[in-house]
Design brief:
The chain is an alpha+beta fold. Helices cover about 20% and strands about 30% of the residues.
Amino acid sequence: MGRALAASTLEQQDAARRQQLANQGIAKVDGNIAHAKEQLMMQPWWLDWTAGLFPVILAVFLLRSFLFEPFKIPSGSMIPTLLIGDLILVNKFHYGVRLPVINKKIVANNDPQRGDVMVFRFPKDTSVDYIKRVVGVPGDEVSFRAQQLYINGKAAPLEQKPPPGFYDEESRRYFAEFKEKLNGVEHSILVNPQSQPFYGPDDRIAFPFRENCRYSAEGVTCKVPAGHYFMMGDNRDNSQDSRFWGFVPDENIVGKAFFVWMNFGNFKRIGSFH
């Protein structure tokens, strides 16, 4: 289509040129556009295809880089809020506009709040994206003791849902499900009050600002440093999170997760979530 149009335009221009010369009394004109037309028509087909596809590629790039990006939930660390196989959308401008690849913030927007579900680059391997819930913001003292979350010395409101609780289809078991409230955001979590995570010996847990954390038989207490966040999974007994590998720096933030757009195993999963 593009090549034919270019050849037609060339032919029209040549005819106009010859007519102009004829009006000046010049009947014999050098040059033959047949060869030029042949060269135009011989251009590879993929040039036209690429030219037509470029605007689409550009639009997708801008959309994924600055607005919304899809992710797939690979693990059960956010059960019951997010299940394995959920395809989610992440708002990439909610926390500010960032340059692609280097992830440098160029336009500030909202700060992460307690209760947000956030996608971020894993501090120990920034090529990997993680998703957890924000439980501590800069300046907070976060404690997780005896399976209870405390923020600045106050226990996060926790209420057990009526039995039988959350049914996990993969293991075909019921788990105790609780309602937790953070910063006015109510969400469900799974936690076994009789369980106690094993954090390992103190000297085996190392990460930046490790000196801000204290580990004991009861649990862990951390003071969140400036420009960092404390993250935890909603599946508290089955989540590798800030309790084990430390704080998430602001420059690692990808965006705020807010919507399940597809789950091919369960269409009822589609919708927004806190």
